[in-house]
Amino acid sequence: MRSKVHFVRVKLNEDLDAIRDKTRWLLESIKLKKFIRVNDLVAIKISFGEEGNKGYIPPNFVRFVIDEVKSCRGKPFLTDTNTLYKEKRQNTVDHLNLAYEHGFTQDVTGAPIIIADGLRSGEDIKVNINKKHFKSVKIARACADADSLIALSHVTGHMLSGFAAATKNIGMGLATRVGKLLQHSNIKPSVLTSKCTACKLCIVNCPVDAIEIKNKAACIKEDICIGCGDCLVVCRDDAIKISWSETSTFMQEKMAEHALGVMKNKEGRTVFLNYALKITKSCDCMAKDDPRIVPDIGILASTDPIAIDKASADLINETSNLDLFKKEYPNLDWSVQLTYGASIGLGNLEYDLVEME
Which pTM was predicted? Predict the structure, then answer.
Protein backbone atom coordinates (compact mmCIF):
# COMPACT_ATOMS: atom_id res chain seq x y z
CA MET A 1 0.00 0.00 0.00
CA ARG A 2 1.36 3.42 -1.00
CA SER A 3 1.98 5.99 1.74
CA LYS A 4 0.59 9.50 1.65
CA VAL A 5 2.94 12.49 1.87
CA HIS A 6 1.40 15.95 2.21
CA PHE A 7 3.30 18.95 0.88
CA VAL A 8 3.16 22.74 0.94
CA ARG A 9 5.47 24.99 -1.03
CA VAL A 10 7.29 27.67 0.97
CA LYS A 11 9.23 30.55 -0.53
CA LEU A 12 12.30 32.27 0.87
CA ASN A 13 11.30 34.83 3.54
CA GLU A 14 7.63 33.86 3.35
CA ASP A 15 5.33 35.59 5.84
CA LEU A 16 5.10 33.85 9.23
CA ASP A 17 1.31 33.91 9.17
CA ALA A 18 1.42 31.98 5.91
CA ILE A 19 3.86 29.44 7.41
CA ARG A 20 1.54 29.00 10.41
CA ASP A 21 -1.48 28.44 8.15
CA LYS A 22 0.41 25.96 5.98
CA THR A 23 1.65 24.06 9.04
CA ARG A 24 -1.92 23.84 10.32
CA TRP A 25 -3.10 22.56 6.91
CA LEU A 26 -0.42 19.86 6.93
CA LEU A 27 -1.30 18.65 10.42
CA GLU A 28 -5.01 18.72 9.69
CA SER A 29 -4.40 16.81 6.44
CA ILE A 30 -2.65 13.95 8.23
CA LYS A 31 -5.34 14.05 10.96
CA LEU A 32 -3.02 14.81 13.86
CA LYS A 33 -5.80 14.16 16.39
CA LYS A 34 -5.70 10.46 15.47
CA PHE A 35 -2.13 10.23 16.76
CA ILE A 36 -2.43 12.17 20.01
CA ARG A 37 -4.72 11.18 22.85
CA VAL A 38 -5.81 13.52 25.64
CA ASN A 39 -2.91 14.11 28.08
CA ASP A 40 -0.40 12.23 25.90
CA LEU A 41 3.19 13.23 26.59
CA VAL A 42 4.32 14.16 23.07
CA ALA A 43 8.03 14.18 22.19
CA ILE A 44 8.86 16.76 19.53
CA LYS A 45 12.20 15.60 18.15
CA ILE A 46 14.30 18.41 16.73
CA SER A 47 17.93 19.46 16.40
CA PHE A 48 18.69 22.74 18.15
CA GLY A 49 21.72 23.27 15.88
CA GLU A 50 25.39 23.25 16.81
CA GLU A 51 27.16 26.40 17.96
CA GLY A 52 27.37 28.86 15.07
CA ASN A 53 24.81 26.98 13.00
CA LYS A 54 22.06 29.04 11.34
CA GLY A 55 20.17 26.34 9.46
CA TYR A 56 18.10 24.75 12.22
CA ILE A 57 14.30 24.94 12.06
CA PRO A 58 13.37 28.34 13.54
CA PRO A 59 11.77 28.29 17.02
CA ASN A 60 8.71 30.20 15.80
CA PHE A 61 8.10 27.48 13.17
CA VAL A 62 8.25 24.95 15.99
CA ARG A 63 5.68 26.96 17.95
CA PHE A 64 3.15 26.39 15.18
CA VAL A 65 3.46 22.61 15.70
CA ILE A 66 3.36 22.92 19.48
CA ASP A 67 0.13 24.93 19.30
CA GLU A 68 -1.52 22.24 17.18
CA VAL A 69 -0.44 19.52 19.63
CA LYS A 70 -1.96 21.53 22.48
CA SER A 71 -5.18 21.92 20.51
CA CYS A 72 -5.35 18.10 20.55
CA ARG A 73 -4.93 18.33 24.35
CA GLY A 74 -1.51 16.70 24.24
CA LYS A 75 1.40 17.74 26.45
CA PRO A 76 4.37 18.49 24.15
CA PHE A 77 8.05 18.74 24.99
CA LEU A 78 11.02 19.41 22.72
CA THR A 79 13.74 16.81 22.76
CA ASP A 80 17.07 15.70 21.33
CA THR A 81 20.00 13.59 22.53
CA ASN A 82 23.57 14.47 23.40
CA THR A 83 26.24 14.14 20.73
CA LEU A 84 29.11 11.71 20.30
CA TYR A 85 31.56 14.42 19.27
CA LYS A 86 33.13 17.20 21.34
CA GLU A 87 30.97 20.28 20.89
CA LYS A 88 28.38 22.24 22.85
CA ARG A 89 25.80 19.43 22.85
CA GLN A 90 27.93 16.70 24.43
CA ASN A 91 26.21 16.97 27.82
CA THR A 92 22.75 18.12 28.87
CA VAL A 93 23.78 21.33 30.64
CA ASP A 94 25.67 22.75 27.66
CA HIS A 95 23.08 21.34 25.27
CA LEU A 96 20.23 23.18 27.02
CA ASN A 97 22.18 26.42 27.23
CA LEU A 98 22.87 26.29 23.49
CA ALA A 99 19.21 25.55 22.73
CA TYR A 100 18.20 28.61 24.75
CA GLU A 101 20.82 30.73 22.97
CA HIS A 102 19.24 29.66 19.67
CA GLY A 103 15.84 30.84 20.84
CA PHE A 104 14.22 27.57 21.94
CA THR A 105 12.94 29.00 25.21
CA GLN A 106 9.56 28.03 26.57
CA ASP A 107 8.13 31.51 26.14
CA VAL A 108 8.96 31.34 22.41
CA THR A 109 8.08 27.72 21.60
CA GLY A 110 5.44 27.06 24.22
CA ALA A 111 7.06 23.83 25.42
CA PRO A 112 9.87 22.75 27.78
CA ILE A 113 12.99 20.90 26.65
CA ILE A 114 13.93 17.44 27.91
CA ILE A 115 17.23 15.96 26.70
CA ALA A 116 16.08 12.41 26.06
CA ASP A 117 19.18 10.44 27.08
CA GLY A 118 19.95 12.18 30.37
CA LEU A 119 22.78 14.25 31.78
CA ARG A 120 25.65 12.30 30.19
CA SER A 121 23.77 10.13 27.70
CA GLY A 122 23.35 7.20 30.07
CA GLU A 123 19.56 6.93 30.16
CA ASP A 124 18.39 4.38 27.61
CA ILE A 125 16.08 1.47 27.03
CA LYS A 126 16.86 -1.69 25.06
CA VAL A 127 14.49 -2.43 22.19
CA ASN A 128 14.57 -5.84 20.48
CA ILE A 129 14.52 -5.64 16.67
CA ASN A 130 16.33 -8.82 15.49
CA LYS A 131 17.80 -7.41 12.26
CA LYS A 132 21.03 -7.85 10.28
CA HIS A 133 23.32 -5.63 12.34
CA PHE A 134 21.57 -5.59 15.70
CA LYS A 135 19.38 -7.95 17.67
CA SER A 136 18.52 -5.00 19.92
CA VAL A 137 19.23 -1.27 19.97
CA LYS A 138 19.51 1.29 22.77
CA ILE A 139 17.06 4.18 22.46
CA ALA A 140 16.96 7.35 24.56
CA ARG A 141 14.66 6.70 27.50
CA ALA A 142 12.56 9.89 27.41
CA CYS A 143 11.68 9.15 23.78
CA ALA A 144 10.76 5.56 24.58
CA ASP A 145 8.67 6.70 27.54
CA ALA A 146 6.77 9.34 25.54
CA ASP A 147 3.28 8.42 24.36
CA SER A 148 3.62 9.99 20.90
CA LEU A 149 6.44 11.27 18.70
CA ILE A 150 6.58 14.09 16.16
CA ALA A 151 9.92 14.41 14.33
CA LEU A 152 10.73 17.81 12.85
CA SER A 153 13.62 17.28 10.44
CA HIS A 154 15.71 19.83 8.56
CA VAL A 155 16.55 18.28 5.19
CA THR A 156 20.28 18.59 4.37
CA GLY A 157 23.22 16.76 2.91
CA HIS A 158 25.45 14.71 5.22
CA MET A 159 29.12 13.78 5.02
CA LEU A 160 28.53 10.12 5.95
CA SER A 161 25.07 9.34 4.59
CA GLY A 162 24.89 11.86 1.74
CA PHE A 163 21.36 12.85 2.72
CA ALA A 164 19.81 13.58 6.11
CA ALA A 165 16.15 13.98 7.03
CA ALA A 166 13.60 11.98 9.05
CA THR A 167 15.41 8.62 9.07
CA LYS A 168 18.62 10.19 10.31
CA ASN A 169 16.78 12.48 12.74
CA ILE A 170 15.28 9.58 14.67
CA GLY A 171 17.80 6.83 13.87
CA MET A 172 20.92 8.72 14.88
CA GLY A 173 19.19 11.51 16.75
CA LEU A 174 17.29 9.37 19.27
CA ALA A 175 20.07 6.87 19.90
CA THR A 176 22.13 7.25 23.06
CA ARG A 177 25.88 7.81 22.80
CA VAL A 178 26.38 4.03 22.82
CA GLY A 179 23.93 3.69 19.94
CA LYS A 180 25.64 6.46 17.99
CA LEU A 181 29.00 4.80 18.57
CA LEU A 182 27.74 1.46 17.28
CA GLN A 183 26.38 3.12 14.14
CA HIS A 184 29.81 4.67 13.48
CA SER A 185 31.82 1.55 14.35
CA ASN A 186 32.88 0.78 10.77
CA ILE A 187 34.50 4.20 10.33
CA LYS A 188 38.27 3.76 10.36
CA PRO A 189 40.00 7.05 9.57
CA SER A 190 43.68 7.21 8.74
CA VAL A 191 46.16 10.03 8.19
CA LEU A 192 47.80 11.10 4.93
CA THR A 193 51.15 12.04 6.43
CA SER A 194 52.19 13.91 3.29
CA LYS A 195 49.37 16.40 3.87
CA CYS A 196 49.40 16.56 7.68
CA THR A 197 50.93 19.74 9.16
CA ALA A 198 50.81 18.51 12.78
CA CYS A 199 48.52 21.41 13.72
CA LYS A 200 46.99 19.22 16.49
CA LEU A 201 43.40 20.29 15.80
CA CYS A 202 42.39 16.63 15.52
CA ILE A 203 44.09 15.87 18.85
CA VAL A 204 42.25 18.68 20.62
CA ASN A 205 38.90 17.56 19.22
CA CYS A 206 39.22 13.78 19.61
CA PRO A 207 36.75 12.73 22.36
CA VAL A 208 38.77 9.67 23.41
CA ASP A 209 42.38 10.87 22.98
CA ALA A 210 43.03 8.40 20.17
CA ILE A 211 45.41 10.67 18.22
CA GLU A 212 49.02 11.57 18.86
CA ILE A 213 51.88 13.17 16.94
CA LYS A 214 54.48 10.76 15.59
CA ASN A 215 57.25 11.68 13.15
CA LYS A 216 55.79 15.18 12.72
CA ALA A 217 52.33 13.93 11.71
CA ALA A 218 49.14 12.86 13.42
CA CYS A 219 48.76 9.16 14.13
CA ILE A 220 45.43 7.51 14.98
CA LYS A 221 45.42 4.64 17.49
CA GLU A 222 42.96 2.21 15.94
CA ASP A 223 42.43 0.28 19.16
CA ILE A 224 41.11 3.45 20.85
CA CYS A 225 39.37 5.21 17.92
CA ILE A 226 35.55 5.14 18.19
CA GLY A 227 34.89 6.24 14.60
CA CYS A 228 33.06 9.46 15.42
CA GLY A 229 34.58 11.32 12.45
CA ASP A 230 35.49 14.47 14.40
CA CYS A 231 39.05 14.42 13.06
CA LEU A 232 37.72 14.48 9.50
CA VAL A 233 35.47 17.43 10.30
CA VAL A 234 38.13 19.66 11.89
CA CYS A 235 41.10 18.86 9.61
CA ARG A 236 41.92 21.92 7.49
CA ASP A 237 44.53 20.15 5.36
CA ASP A 238 42.44 17.29 3.94
CA ALA A 239 44.82 14.91 5.69
CA ILE A 240 42.22 12.48 7.09
CA LYS A 241 40.90 9.76 4.79
CA ILE A 242 38.06 7.28 5.21
CA SER A 243 36.87 4.35 3.08
CA TRP A 244 33.59 6.07 2.28
CA SER A 245 31.59 3.52 0.32
CA GLU A 246 31.73 0.64 2.81
CA THR A 247 31.54 2.98 5.78
CA SER A 248 28.45 4.79 4.50
CA THR A 249 26.54 1.64 3.57
CA PHE A 250 26.96 0.05 6.98
CA MET A 251 26.27 3.29 8.81
CA GLN A 252 23.06 3.96 6.88
CA GLU A 253 21.80 0.41 7.49
CA LYS A 254 22.57 0.66 11.21
CA MET A 255 20.88 4.06 11.34
CA ALA A 256 17.73 2.60 9.78
CA GLU A 257 17.74 -0.23 12.31
CA HIS A 258 17.92 2.27 15.17
CA ALA A 259 15.06 4.21 13.59
CA LEU A 260 13.06 0.97 13.58
CA GLY A 261 13.78 0.63 17.30
CA VAL A 262 12.47 4.14 17.91
CA MET A 263 9.26 3.35 16.00
CA LYS A 264 8.67 -0.04 17.55
CA ASN A 265 6.64 1.04 20.58
CA LYS A 266 5.07 4.00 18.78
CA GLU A 267 2.84 2.27 16.23
CA GLY A 268 0.08 4.67 15.30
CA ARG A 269 1.70 7.40 17.35
CA THR A 270 4.33 8.94 15.03
CA VAL A 271 4.22 11.95 12.70
CA PHE A 272 7.02 13.37 10.56
CA LEU A 273 7.52 16.89 9.21
CA ASN A 274 10.44 17.51 6.83
CA TYR A 275 11.54 21.10 6.32
CA ALA A 276 13.15 21.31 2.87
CA LEU A 277 14.26 24.89 3.52
CA LYS A 278 17.78 26.36 3.60
CA ILE A 279 19.10 23.05 2.33
CA THR A 280 22.87 22.93 2.84
CA LYS A 281 25.58 20.46 1.86
CA SER A 282 26.30 19.61 5.50
CA CYS A 283 23.93 18.83 8.36
CA ASP A 284 23.22 21.19 11.26
CA CYS A 285 25.95 19.53 13.35
CA MET A 286 28.58 20.88 10.95
CA ALA A 287 27.16 23.66 8.80
CA LYS A 288 27.43 27.21 10.10
CA ASP A 289 25.75 29.82 7.92
CA ASP A 290 26.38 27.76 4.80
CA PRO A 291 24.84 28.69 1.44
CA ARG A 292 21.81 26.92 0.02
CA ILE A 293 22.61 24.23 -2.55
CA VAL A 294 19.08 24.46 -4.00
CA PRO A 295 16.22 26.96 -3.68
CA ASP A 296 13.76 26.42 -0.83
CA ILE A 297 11.20 23.70 -1.59
CA GLY A 298 8.66 23.60 1.23
CA ILE A 299 7.43 21.49 4.15
CA LEU A 300 6.27 17.88 3.97
CA ALA A 301 4.24 15.77 6.42
CA SER A 302 3.63 12.05 6.67
CA THR A 303 3.33 9.17 9.10
CA ASP A 304 5.97 7.23 7.12
CA PRO A 305 9.66 8.22 7.57
CA ILE A 306 10.84 6.44 4.42
CA ALA A 307 8.12 7.88 2.19
CA ILE A 308 8.63 11.44 3.44
CA ASP A 309 12.40 11.19 2.94
CA LYS A 310 11.97 9.75 -0.55
CA ALA A 311 9.49 12.49 -1.46
CA SER A 312 11.83 15.17 -0.05
CA ALA A 313 14.76 13.90 -2.10
CA ASP A 314 12.61 13.54 -5.23
CA LEU A 315 11.37 17.15 -4.95
CA ILE A 316 14.90 18.44 -4.42
CA ASN A 317 16.28 16.46 -7.36
CA GLU A 318 13.37 17.57 -9.54
CA THR A 319 14.13 21.22 -8.69
CA SER A 320 17.86 20.68 -9.28
CA ASN A 321 17.41 18.66 -12.50
CA LEU A 322 19.95 16.14 -11.18
CA ASP A 323 20.71 13.84 -8.25
CA LEU A 324 21.86 16.70 -6.04
CA PHE A 325 23.13 14.64 -3.11
CA LYS A 326 25.11 12.37 -5.45
CA LYS A 327 26.64 15.49 -6.97
CA GLU A 328 27.63 16.81 -3.53
CA TYR A 329 28.87 13.40 -2.30
CA PRO A 330 29.86 11.39 -5.40
CA ASN A 331 31.39 8.53 -3.39
CA LEU A 332 28.21 7.87 -1.39
CA ASP A 333 24.89 6.20 -2.21
CA TRP A 334 22.49 8.24 -0.09
CA SER A 335 19.53 6.01 -0.97
CA VAL A 336 20.80 3.03 1.07
CA GLN A 337 19.04 4.29 4.20
CA LEU A 338 15.73 4.34 2.31
CA THR A 339 15.96 1.04 0.42
CA TYR A 340 17.27 -0.81 3.47
CA GLY A 341 14.76 0.93 5.75
CA ALA A 342 11.93 -0.17 3.48
CA SER A 343 13.27 -3.74 3.43
CA ILE A 344 13.11 -4.03 7.24
CA GLY A 345 9.63 -2.56 7.55
CA LEU A 346 10.50 1.00 8.56
CA GLY A 347 8.39 2.49 5.78
CA ASN A 348 7.40 2.51 2.14
CA LEU A 349 9.32 3.74 -0.91
CA GLU A 350 6.06 4.13 -2.85
CA TYR A 351 4.07 7.25 -2.03
CA ASP A 352 1.38 9.62 -3.26
CA LEU A 353 2.20 13.32 -2.96
CA VAL A 354 -0.75 15.47 -1.86
CA GLU A 355 0.05 19.12 -2.51
CA MET A 356 -1.80 22.05 -0.97
CA GLU A 357 -3.55 24.04 -3.69
Answer: 0.88
